[in-house]
Design goal:
It is found in: Cell membrane. The protein is α/β, with parallel strands linked by helices. The chain has ten helices and nine strands. The protein has an eight-stranded mixed β-barrel with strand order 1-2-4-5-6-7-8-9, surrounded by four helices. Helix 6 links the parallel strand 6 and strand 7. Helix 1 crosses helix 2 and helix 3 runs parallel beside helix 4. The site of ligand C2E has 22 residues, from strand 2, helix 2, helix 3 and strand 6.
């Protein structure tokens, strides 16, 4: 029994050690990853739920680590937020996404939008608004076609500060979307308080549309409530025809998900734009 106990302990400590080692490696590599060109963006189409025309894309970051291979943003973004690297990475992503989308606009998709995720940590950067303004000027990107996706946890610490920055961004013409709606603890109070243009229903709700009537009712209620506050609604994580049909029926404005398209490489986006929008 003693031996067995020791064995269990060793397995545990070994796994723990590996997890710590991986974390340290990720932390240390984050600093160099930008310079080494290890990040890239993929783009997931957002379609008009009725006509199914692409109205824009969400830019999603990908990291190919030289030793660890592909690392999910769900793993490294929280680490980059802790270390502060997200400030630089976030600005890189914004610039890259604007450049890419500008090139599609120049190909003929004049009104094509782009949505970029903005981490709460980026609000701690004193020049956040000025930096975003500079990227828009440099890339000659129309601010009205840019949506910044924020989550409700951005304002946990300094609500007044965040509010003032959001207001400044809105004054530039930028649109603000509340991401992952319904998963936080204070969703409702944020809706009226924040200067929002739209909200994205979290995929956990969308994926329950096939389930019981109560869960459908939640989605319907969110859409109705958003519309009464003059907000547009995007459903994320749409995977089935049944979900899309229900969303259409309930007048959801935009849809995004594997049913429509997976996140795509830029080349595939252009092909898709030609096919779907007749570019
Ligand atoms: P998110 O902003 O909620 O992005 C949506 C996630 O859902 C993406 O995961 C997307 O690939 C995935 N998705 C899209 N359609 C479907 C579907 O039909 N079914 C399912 N099951 N999933 C779907 P991804 O790309 O792994 O990104 C994960 C998270 O990482 C994002 O969640 C976002 O919070 C963060 N992230 C990604 N790129 C950036 C970035 O450039 N900056 C920041 N701050 N965060 C980012
Ligand atoms: Ca998002
Ligand atoms: Ca989301
Ligand atoms: Ca999310």
């Amino acid at each position: 029994a003693k031996e067995q106990g020791g064995g269990v302990y060793e397995v545990f400590s070994c796994e723990l050690y590996q997890a710590v080692q991986r974390r340290v490696l990720i932390e240390n590599s984050l600093r160099k990853a930008l310079d080494r060109g290890e990040f890239r963006l993929v783009y997931q189409p957002l379609v008009d739920a009725r006509g199914c025309m692409t109205i824009g894309h969400e830019a999603l970051i990908r990291w190919r680590h030289p030793e660890l291979g592909t690392i999910s943003p769900m793993e490294f973004i929280p680490i980059a937020e802790e270390t502060g690297h997200i400030v630089e990475i976030g600005m890189w992503a914004l610039r890259e996404a604007c450049l890419q989308t500008k090139s599609w606009q120049d190909e003929g998709a004049e009104k094509l939008g782009i949505s970029v995720n903005l981490s709460g940590r980026q609000f701690q950067q004193p020049e956040l608004v000025e930096c975003i303004e500079a990227v828009l000027a440099e890339t000659k990107f129309d601010p009205k076609l840019l949506t910044l996706e924020i989550t409700e946890n951005i304002a946990i610490h300094n609500e007044r500060h965040v509010m003032s920055k959001l207001t400044q961004l809105k004054q530039l013409g930028i649109k603000i979307a509340l991401d992952d709606f319904g998963t936080g603890y204070s969703s409702l109070s944020y809706l009226a308080k924040f200067p929002l243009d739209s909200l994205k229903i979290d995929k956990s709700f969308v994926q329950n549309i096939g389930g019981n009537a109560g869960e459908k009712e939640i989605v319907k209620t969110i859409i109705g409530m958003a519309h009464s506050l003059n907000l547009k609604v995007t459903a994320e994580g749409v995977e089935t025809e049944e979900q899309l049909a229900y969303l259409k029926q309930e007048a959801c404005d935009f849809a995004q998900g594997y049913l429509i398209d997976r996140p795509l490489e830029p080349e595939a986006c252009l092909e898709q734009l030609v096919r779907r929008n007749g570019l």
